[in-house]
Design brief:
four-stranded parallel beta sheet, globular
Length: 137
Amino acid sequence: MPKGRARRGILDTSVIIDLEHIPVGDLPLAVAISAITMAELAAGPHATSNVDERARRQDRLQRTEAAFDPLPFDADCARAYGRVYAAVSAAGRRARGARAVDLLIAATACAQDLPLYTRNPDDFEALGELVQVVPLK
C-alpha cells in the first residue's frame, strides 16, 4: 500500500461532485459513499431551474448510482449521530438545519470507523477524535 494512502474511506458529497477534478492518488484505495450522499445527489436536479445544470446533476446522479452501492444509514449510524451532534454542539457550532446532512454523513463514517474525505473540511470541524476528516483540494 502506498505510504499515507488509506485503504478505505467515505467520500463526502462535495468529493463526488468534483470527483473528476481530484487526483486518484489523493483518494483511498477503496471508496464508499453514504446513502445520505445519494439522497443529496437525488435532490440536486430538483434544486435548480437551469436546464443545463439540471442535466449535469442528473448525469452525476446516474453515474454515481451505477458506480456505488451506498452504505446505509442504520442503527449504528443513528447512535454515532448522537455522538457527532453532541461534539458539534459542545463546540458551539450549529448542528441543525442544512448542516445536519453533513453530520449524518460524518455519523456514517464514525459508525464504519472510516476516514471521511471532503472538499469542505470546515463543515466537519469539532468532530475531534470521532471522525478522521481528510481535506481534499
